[in-house]
C-alpha cells in the first residue's frame, strides 16, 4: 500500500485524468482514419507516409520542449500548451476534404504531443519517488489506455447511429478540450532556472542512455503504425474491398478495443513489476512480444483476436517501462531533455517506419511489411543486453 500512496500523487492523478480524456478523443479518431483516408482516394503508402511525416516533422520539438522545461524550471506551461494545440488540430480534422488536409491536422496534433509529452513525463517522474516510478508510469499508461477503450466504443456508437465520420471527428475535440482544462489544475513547484546549451547538454547524456536510445530507435522503426495494423486486420478478415467502406468499421473497432483492454489492464501491473525486477527485463520481454506478434500478422489463417490481444500484452510491457527506464538513466537535472530526446528519436524513426511499411505493402505485399517490422523489433530485443549489460539500472533522484 505504501508504494501505491507514494506513486499516485496529486499531479500523477491529474495528469493521468488529462491523458484519459485526451485519449478518448484521439481514439475516437484513430480507428476511423484508415477508412477516411481510403474515402479520400489515398492508398496504403499515403497512410504510412502521413503517419510517419506527422511524427517526424515535430521530432525536434520534443527535444527542444524537454530542454526548455529543464532550463526554465517549469513543466506546466508546456503541458497545457501541448494539450490545447492538439485539441484545436483535432477539430480541424473534421473539415478535411483531401488527404493533405489530414496531414496538416495530424501534424498539428503531433506538434501538441511533442510540446507536452517530455514535460508531462518529467513531471510524473518528479512527482513520484524513484522506487515507485514504474507504478506511476504504469498508472498513467493504464489511464491513458482506458481512454483508448472508451474512445472507439463512443465512435462506433456515433457511426451506428448514422453520424458522418467528419462529425465524429468534430465531437472528438470536446474531450480534448476537457483534457486541456484539467492540466490547468496541475500544481508545480518552480525550480531555479538554469541556462544550458542544448547541444552541450545532449553531448553530456550518459553513455548507457545514448546506447539505449539507439535500441529504442530500432524498435520504433519496426513498430507498425496502428492504422496499418488495423487495416491489416480488416483485410485479413473481410477482404480489401470491404475496407474501402464503412462495412469494415465494426470489426476494426472491436479488435482495437480488445487490444486496448488488455493494454490498459496490464499496464499498471507491468509498471509495478518493473519497480521490483528492473526495467530491462520488462522492456526486453515487450520488444520480443511485439516483434513476434508483428511477424505473425504476416501469416494468414491465425485468429485475429488472439493477435490483437497479444499485441496489447507487448505494448503494456514496453510503454511505461521505457519511459521509466529513460528517467532512471537520465541525470536528475536533465529529465526533460532525456525524455524529449527519447520521444523525438522515436517520432523521427516513425517516418522511416511508415515509408518502409507502406512501400513494402504496396510494392511487395502486406506480409513483407509485417515480416520486416517484426524482424526490426526482434533485433532491438537482441541488442538491448548490449546497451544495458546489467539487469537492474540505478535509480537516480
Describe the protein.
The protein is globular. The longest helix has 29 residues, at 99-127. It starts with a helix and ends in a 10-residue tail after the last helix. It is 79% helix and 0% strand. The model is unreliable at 391-397 (pLDDT under 50). It has 17 helices and no strands. It has helices at 2-7, 10-29, 33-39, 44-56, 59-72, 76-93, 99-127, 133-160, 165-183, 198-203, 207-222, 226-238, 249-277, 279-296, 304-329, 335-363, 366-387. By secondary structure, it is mostly helical. The protein has one domain (2-185, 206-387): Growth Hormone, Chain: A (Up-down Bundle).
Task: Give the secondary structure arrangement, pairings included.
Layout: H1 2-7, H2 10-29, H3 33-39, H4 44-56, H5 59-72, H6 76-93, H7 99-127, H8 133-160, H9 165-183, H10 198-203, H11 207-222, H12 226-238, H13 249-277, H14 279-296, H15 304-329, H16 335-363, H17 366-387
Helix pairs in contact: 2-7, 2-8, 2-9, 4-7, 4-16, 5-7, 5-16, 6-7, 6-9, 7-16, 8-13, 8-15, 11-16, 11-17, 12-13, 13-14, 13-15, 14-15, 14-17, 16-17
Order of helices and strands: HHHHHHHHHHHHHHHHH
> How can the largest sheet be summarized?
none
Mean pLDDT: 83
Compute the separation of the termini in Å: 22 Å
Main CATH class: Mainly Alpha
